[in-house]
Amino acid sequence: MGARGLLIALTAATLLCSAACATGPGPSPAAVEQLAVPGFSFATDTFAFRNDIRSRNPNAPDLYANYCFVLARSLRQFFAFARFDPSAPRLSHDGYADRIREVVARAPWDAPAPADDRIVIPGYPNLRALSEGEEQIVKESLGTRFWTWVHWTNWRVTLPVTDGHQAGVAREMMDEIAQGRLVQLLVTNWPKPELNHTVVAFEFREASTGIEFQVWDPNNPASPGQLTFDRERSRFVATNLYDTEFGLIRVFRMYYSPWL
Predict the structure, then answer these.
(1) Segments making up each domain of the chain, as ranges
(2) How far apart are CA 91 and CA 120, in angstroms?
(3) Are 183 and 173 in contact (CB under 8 A)?
(4) Angle at CA 144, nearest 5°, toward 227 and 250?
(5) Please, where are the H alpha helices in the chain?
(6) Separation of alpha carbons 219 and 74, rounded Å
(7) How far is CA 245 from the centre of its chain?
(8) For 9-64, what is each residue's pLDDT tens digit?
(9) pLDDT of 156 strictly over 80
């Protein structure tokens, strides 16, 4: 193996360990019992349409299915980089398509933009209204699902994780929410084919069972879901995820750096 090959191998091994086997301090009691991302509203800052499940609609034509990763990433990008101005004149369909593409072209791990540097979406008060009024244009402009299917970090669903790793993820989620950032998660109960999915956490609260995280699920625009970090078992539990049985799951953070 040459020097280049050795460097690639060492890099891959390092990333593998950090992604699947990292350990860290478990969540400590939060300074507050409940905390949500400031300024985020489930009712207004989420998409009005759903990501459909292909297996539940096998014969439906033109189904908007398997876009969960695209929708979750785009939700974060709109929250971080867009500003809505309902008093401004509405754009043509092409005009909205251009603005939407500008928003989703920004890296989701970048720091939220100040108001003056945000991309203005005129004619609508929020993302919910835009995605309801311009549904087809929004769907077409968010981008392809192909690259989310083949993203190199998706292999993590096949790997076991340590208790320390899951405790570290819970701690990072709490820290990110406390700092005002939405947290995109890869959630899985592989090898069971039921759940290999993504959600966005926006709130946590202390409970007798552990730490309850409120999440937006691309498959359910009507109401928040919930996953819980069980302190006693140091594991995550799907307590209320759409179309998912109650039970243990593994959780990884997504799209929070150029690497992961």
Answers:
(1) 21-36+152-253, 54-149
(2) 11
(3) yes
(4) 20
(5) 3-20, 68-81, 93-104, 127-133, 135-141, 146-149, 163-178
(6) 14
(7) 20
(8) 333 333 333 333 344 445 554 456 889 999 999 999 999 999 987 777 777 778 89
(9) no
206 SS3 class = strand
Assess whether pLDDT exceeds 50 at residue 5: no
This prediction has a pTM of: 0.85
Q: Which fold has domain 21-36+152-253?
A: Cathepsin B; Chain A (3.90.70)
Continuous H helices in 40-121 = 68-81, 93-104
85: which residues sit within 8 A by CB, 6+ positions away?
A: 120, 121, 122, 123
Single-letter residue type at 215: V
Res. 2: pLDDT tops 70: no
Residue (of 89, 75, 86, 77) closest to 219 by Cα position: 75
What is the torsional sign of CA 239, 245, 251, 256? negative
pLDDT digits (tens, 9 = 90+) for 177-186: 999 999 999 9
Question: Which residues fall within 8 angstroms of residue 203, CB to CB, at 6 or more apart?
Answer: 34, 35, 36, 37, 177, 213, 214, 224
Tokens at residue 111, please? 């720091």
Encoded tokens for 145: 């699902």
158 confidence band (pLDDT: 50, 70, 90): confident
Write the single-letter amino acid at 13. Answer: A
Report the alpha-carbon distance of residue 151 to residue 13 in Å, rounded. Answer: 17
